[in-house]
Amino acid sequence: MGEIITGLNGKAVDLGAVADRIRKRNQKMVEGVIATGFDLLEAKALLGHGNFGDWLLSEFSWTERTARNFMSAAAALGANRKCISVLPLTTVYKLAAPSTPVEVRDQVVAELEAGQAVKPAEVEARILAARPVKIAAQDRRRWNDGCAHTKRNAKRAAVAKSDVQSAAKPIRPPGNALAEFKVAVDIWFAKMDAGAKQDAVAYVKAKVGEA
After folding, report:
1. How far apart are alpha carbons 174 and 105 in whole angstroms?
2. Alpha-carbon torsion 5, 7, 9, 13, what sign?
3. Which residues contact 110 (CB under 8 A, 6 or more apart)?
4. Among 42, 102, 107, 206, which has the highest number of CB atoms less than 10 A from its own CB?
5. Which tens digits make up the pLDDT trace of 21-66?
6. Tens-digit pLDDT profile for residues 191-207
């Protein structure tokens, strides 16, 4: 029996019982995720890689990235679902991730099976500390590539906007503002992504209104 306090409705509440209910729900949730992971692994084997993605989208509106969390948990921790179910789901996902060294995963599972109290924060700290240097280097490279991609997009946006501005000014067919709109938008659409296309439409509409 845990601490008894008086609730807002004036009734006594056993916080220990509340904690037990929460723990049981968490255990069921983790076990359910692993069971779902096994089902997804089976479905993927039956459908094949290309069809599997379409099936996920059709049935659940999921991407394959979402399904990977379930499948990784099942593949890496399925045999130990009972003991790892005491951990929060986010920690289970991190423990099952392909980037987590097997040694760290096995050590945590062994401690849990031995009945030791393992704090989620400690598990995640071990994972971070043991991540291979090459993984960290990959993360830095992805970050640098993302920054470079953003800069290239910004530069293309500036060039495309300049093209639209210069193209919109000389094209003024009498009584045919639609032609100006079409030419300017075609130039922009050929260069930019969906977000930039919306900017182009707003800009050219303003120009047509001035004609």
Report:
1. 73
2. negative
3. none
4. 107
5. 999 999 999 999 999 999 999 999 999 878 999 999 999 999 999 9
6. 566 666 566 666 656 65
**Three-class secondary structure assignment of the chain:** CCCEEECCCCCEEEHHHHHHHHHHHHHHHHHHHHHHHHHHHHHHHHHCHHHHHHHHHHHHCCCHHHHHHHHHHHHHHHHHHHHHCCCCHHHHHHHHCCCCCHHHHHHHHHHHHCCCCCCHHHHHHHHHHHCCHHHHHHHHHHHHHHHHHHHHHHHHHHHHHHHHHHHHCCCCCCCCHHHHHHHHHHHHHHHCCHHHHHHHHHHHHHHHHHC
Contact 52/44 with Cβ under 8 angstroms? yes
Total-model pTM: 0.57
Q: Which residue has the tokens 């040694």?
A: 103
- The structure tokens listed for 129 are 């500390």
What gap in Å lies between CA 175 and CA 109, rounded to an integer?
76
Residues in the chain, overall count = 211
């969906």: which residue's tokens?
A: 194
Measured distance CA(90)–CA(97) in Å, rounded: 11
Q: Residue 39: left (phi > 0), alpha (psi -120 to 50), or beta?
A: alpha
Rounded CA-CA distance 108/113 in Å is 9
